[in-house]
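Record pair follows.
FIRST:
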Amino acid sequence: MALKQSLQQKLGLKINPLQIQLIKLLELPTYQLEQRIKEELESNPLLEEGQEEPESEYTVENEEEFEGGEDDEEGQEKNEDDFTLEDYMNDEDDIPDYKLSVSNASKDDEARDLIFSQGTTFRENLMSQLGMRNLSDLERKVAEYIIGNIDDDGYLRRNIGNIVDDLAFGAGIEISEQEVEKLLKIIQEFEPSGVGARDLRECLLLQVRHKLSENPANPVLQMAQAVLTDCFEEFSRKHYEKIARKLRISDTDLKIAIEEILKLNPKPGGTGGDSSFERNAEKVIPDFTLDLVDGELQLTLNSGNLPELRINKAYLNILDGYKNGQSAKDKKDVVSFVKYKLNSAKSFIDAVEQRNNTLMLTMTAIVQFQKPFFLTGDESLLKPMILRDIADITGLDVSTISRVSNSKYVQTWFGIYALKDFFTGSMQMDSGEEVSTGELKNALKDIIDAEDKRKPLTDDELVDLMNQKGYQIARRTIAKYRQMLDIPVARLRREI
């Protein structure tokens, strides 16, 4: 039997727990870090809120008691089973006091009171209005079921026939479609106006009719109703010439009517407290503040409502009851538990401190790289910048820069920006100069803003105009940037 010998090379990477914790904290924006700190405070009794206090008398006295002191009358050597505070805090635990606490407040932060308010949700509001109507028990149950089927935008998407079937098979309620329609009409009278509509046309019509009920003689509202009733298809496609011919009205009158329609709310449920808009909207709390003071940029890290953290040294008093009259095993269990929690607390404090330092280091490099933009607020001055550029300046890894820039925001003196917006690609102009994608978007937006709204420019025409400015850009890129700028196609940009 022949023996085979082979050589295999493996590359392994070990990451210690502190690094893992730091990586996780770097990804968190301020409001999520606040929640993470609260969870850590709840789970670790040796971690508490507050500023670091001077060393207490307890620490010194008990350290001497645990050590036995040089004036010990019996001069006995320490028993190997006696766990002292010195043993507890030795070797790798010998960390300077400044690492036993972290301040999440900047020098300009002031103590502020939190004000909480409690409002009525969208469906609670509808139910409250339903309670004011004189309905039978059966009608009330059906109306409540209808309200339950209204989505967060304020629309009833379910077919009336399906609702009738659901009531019959699910609740044992026999009711006709006409009766359900009647109850739906009642709900459509509720506030906010337009609620309970089955499509956009009905939603807008409900709002116009509500206004007409208060001002029946208003000619603008009457014209808006006519547009929505007889020409909704043409209105949605912006075929204004067809609408004017069909209704036999002037362009001026049509423009006034359309302006009135555009004031209406297409999502009446969006005013409620439990709407999908409010629930899904990203909560933005700037992680940095950048001020311009006397021509100089001043960067600060926002603390929000983040508490200051410190080690709860008073918790170590539990060791005092175990130095006499307890078995070595009992002492060892208690001390091991406290030591574990202390190490965890110090590790968390250190990770938070490192996170703050890394964020400031990265943002400072971004500010220096994009200084002309931050001094003026002119987005055309944004330079092409990639993650590698900032990594080279800071000496940090590209992945670290990516984590820092993700879900982080900076509040400048001219607005709030996501950090990721400063990382843009580049494109070479005819002159050979490199420009950022932000400059391209601004140039495209300027062209569209200056166009004749009666005859908006097509994407092909936009390509030609961009090429004339020296930007060699493809049609699909124009369409991509237009969508990113939330600018519709030419047909939908048409105005009267």
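SECOND:
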Amino acid sequence: MDQLKITKKNETFLYIETDPGIEMELTEHFCFFVPGYKFMPAYRNKYWDGKIRLFDTRKKTLYVGLYKYLKQFCLERGYEVLTDDSAQYGSVEPEKLPLDFRRAPVLTANQIPITPRDYQLDALEHALQNEKSLLLSPTASGKSLIIYLAARWYIENDSSMKILIIVPTISLVEQMYSDFEDYSSTDEHFHMDEYSHKIHGGIPKGQKLFHRIVISTWQSIYKKPASWFQSYGMVIGDEAHQFKAKSLTAIMEKCTEAKYRIGTTGTLDGTQTHQLVLEGLFGPVHKVTTTKDLIDSDQLAKLDIKMLLLKYKEEHCKEISKLKYQDEIDFIVRYTPRNNFISNLAIDQTGNTLILFNYVEKHGKPLHNILKEKLKGKKRKLFYVSGETDVDTRESVRTITEKEDNAIIVASLGTFSTGINIRNLHNLIFASPSKSQIRVLQSIGRGLRKSNRDTQVFDIADDLHWKAKKNYTLEHAAERIKIYSKEKFDYELFEINI
């Protein structure tokens, strides 16, 4: 019988010994085309075939997190699997967890005592029992609390190694640290300044990393040598869907001693390639809960989605039918009647309103200027946030809006669609066309924090079809409708002539 001898090289890689024929089978089995590869320069210039190969034939390694898929590969082909019985490949016996596992530490939110929800404790238990897990939990489900509880459990049960928490932006470093301070504000046994350290833009001069918990952007650490990562026994990747990027996979590959690996994300992009990379780095996907379940159980605000389909004049439709994608986008975001419609829509709403845009110079700033002019002499507050806005200003805007009840925030998708929590948001306007499942769902999550009213989402779509030819952004709108249907969100479609 053909055999595969599998040993655990470290907490990142499995080492596989087998004959060359089976190695070729492994290479082909764990091999996928990258979405959009045909448009990438390396493929066009014939330097690359467009595939990601997860089994390294030279090193004979595969990510530990893909162990279950490797076992399935062997089972389907009748191959015998030989493993080291002493090695842990993906699950811990429940009795190895402390009996007081569900005894949460003293927790607060805004100085008010809180109790973790059952699904948060279930997710935590799953992640710790399996050691490696990719937790799929929607925006506004309390992922930061799960991360905090995981870190606290590790500190109390392993005194020898540190915890690395990786987030994509400086804003999220500050927010994660602030959330941890909030959760532990009345906990006499845990003080953030003693246990935790922030890294973004490098380590301050003279600062030594002696803290057990390190919260960092990936940009600040990805160039550090492998030795720097050896002291971490737990690594947590927030917004884990971004870890398909090469720099981020490199970080995870360096964390060879991190037995506990937890990825958290609100959504995956739906491609098999990216999911297997993420599962390889963190572990198998575990669905924690869904937005629909949280809304139905009254833990999140109810969602009211209105897709506003803007119908353009015939001469514009005819003109756009001849243009390429980017030219169509440029026309749409610069079209004055459209921007006036969006600004008037925002002004007509009551409550805090977030307008999300994609292009700073040609869309975000013009929208902000239109609103600033329309709001002259009125008491309503207006804020603007983009990648150019420093982190302190972004945080202050977030804090201010939590105290306001009728502000308008004009913000770029890059700064406010991912990870930034606004607890007092009532209306959300998608001002830029998008078909990205991740962006759509995470943006919607900005407005789902529980308040005293439903959340309204205004999805601006653009109908510029000419005869039988649909325009690009109309097709994007169709993709967003598919997302709403898949997530079982209620939505209405309104046609508006502009």
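COMMENT: The radius of gyration is 24 Å.
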